[in-house]
Amino acid sequence: MSKTTAPTEPIKPVREPRGTGRRLYGAIAHKLGAAILAGEYLPGDVLSGEIVFSELLDVSRSAYREAIQVLAAKGLVESRPKAGTRVLPRNRWNLLDPEVLGWAFAGQPDIAFVRSLFELRAIVEPAAAALAAERRDKAALKSMRDALAGMTRHTLASEAGRLADRDFHNAILLATGNDALIVLSASVCAAVSWTTQFKHRQRALPRNPIPDHRRVLDAIAASDSAAASEAMRVLVELALEDTRQSMQP
Amino acid sequence: MSKTTAPTEPIKPVREPRGTGRRLYGAIAHKLGAAILAGEYLPGDVLSGEIVFSELLDVSRSAYREAIQVLAAKGLVESRPKAGTRVLPRNRWNLLDPEVLGWAFAGQPDIAFVRSLFELRAIVEPAAAALAAERRDKAALKSMRDALAGMTRHTLASEAGRLADRDFHNAILLATGNDALIVLSASVCAAVSWTTQFKHRQRALPRNPIPDHRRVLDAIAASDSAAASEAMRVLVELALEDTRQSMQP
DNA sequence: TTAATCTATTTGTCTGAGTAATTAATTGTG
DNA sequence: CACAATTAATTACTCAGACAAATAGATTAA
Question: ipTM score here?
Fold first, then answer.
């Protein structure tokens, strides 16, 4: 195949801080990953051949192959000699991988998937708050207080406020001392921050959520795991409702 | 550096069905990933240089680089020009990635991490059972019944019995209709199956778990989400105790 | 002390060749 | 005719070597 046809604009590394596509192979992985998540390639589809596809993208086979390794590592595709590189069925995808989540939200995010993420969050975060209440680490409590202070200074609609909110949830997760929980929430929180960022672009937050956050903190400080869980449940519930409002219309 | 020193036996692709190391780059990724998870390389350590390291392993730079891409995709390492390839801090690792979990259990698994996985399971699975009870899909119910039947035919200590047990839990997750939950449990279940496999090598299961499983199924069939959650909680609790017994001494 | 510049080192990208694995067609065999 | 063994063709995989781009660290200038 000749290089005359350029069906896609030339792949160029994106300059993002800590982003996924600072290098060429990263940019290709981002492009292809987002395309797969968006449904442009369906499970079972083959990605032409190495030579054909790399020429199509106008990059070397090395760069293309390294990008494919990234996708394969996340369970999106599988390469086999003679069979080519095929998109794997959706249940093999590593949907909780932070980068994959980023690709999922790069395009029009699937409503059902967003809902399932919030459902997962509604399961995990209250339980995490309860665990944190049982452990009640003093340093962790201080982190939460700091984050809460940050939220009082800035409104949640601001960038700084959202960061403080994230820090608050992160501090609780840290306080559980559970590595698996920490990693999991790191993924989910990243995704949630995407949706909230999406949301706040349209409308400001209708209510002041500080008291709700303080309730969680107080319960953890008092080692009341049941109250902590319940308070966190309310918090997630509210976040879900806000998101639903902004995504429905 | 010359190739005279061979500190490690030559890397060779492992022949596993659907395994991680069928190719050379996969074998390297497996070797390095397992080494990192085992703590042989600590966060902040650099992996020499591409040329040095690839010669050390006696493979080409391409194969080594593709292996590194896999590790980088899972958040284990990060490569930057002039700075080399460094092991990232543990909170960047994608610990819920099935492959990473496999590497974690390739060596002596960290007790604290196993505990945190069970803690996560104890959080997620009862909630999933409750969700399944709310949805109550007829096809899913049939899958659970089939898996349960498989468990009655074989004892849980057998390979077939363990597969049936996995199918049972999988069917419940499927019934939730929550993609995020499904992916998450796919990871955790894989890890748990590792530990149970480890366990059963030493001693047979002391009790017959069929009635406990049936209780979960009945509660889901009756759309009693509270009962389903509680029954599943008991199930996970028992599994945790069994594992604790076999890992303590 | 601070900030700008330079340089050496390291990863990133490209090219082209050859190897190994696997599917699919083909042939042989009951 | 059905089925197993063989072969051929396609594809990913591995290798080697060169050059480009980026950057951490030293050097110099303000």
Answer: 0.89
Name the band, by pLDDT with cuts 50, 70 and 90, for residue A6.
very low
Element (H, E) at A124: helix A111-135
B127 CB-near residues (< 8 Å, 6+ apart) = A123, B229
State the CATH number of the domain containing residue B219: 1.20.120.530
| Same-domain pairing of B125 and B235 | yes
Q: Which of B59, B90, B121 is the last residue before a domain boundary? A: B90
- The 8-class DSSP code of residue B80 comes to E
Provide the CA B235 to C1' C11 distance, Å, integer. Answer: 50
Q: Compute the count of residue pairs across chains A and B with CB atoms less than 8 Å apart.
A: 104
Question: Token digits for A21?
Answer: 């596509």
Q: How far apart are CA A84 and CA B126, in angstroms?
A: 41
Average pLDDT of chain B to the nearest whole number? 86
Q: How far is the CA of A54 from the C1' of C27 (A)?
A: 38
Question: Can you give the CATH number for the domain in which B54 is found?
Answer: 1.10.10.10
Q: Could you list the residue range(s) of the whole structural domain that residue B223 is in? A: 109-247
Instruction: Answer whether B52's CB lies under 8 Å from B5's CB.
Output: no
A42 DSSP assignment: -
- Express each pLDDT in A177-215 by its tens digit: 999 999 998 788 777 777 666 555 555 555 667 888 999
pLDDT of residue A2: 35
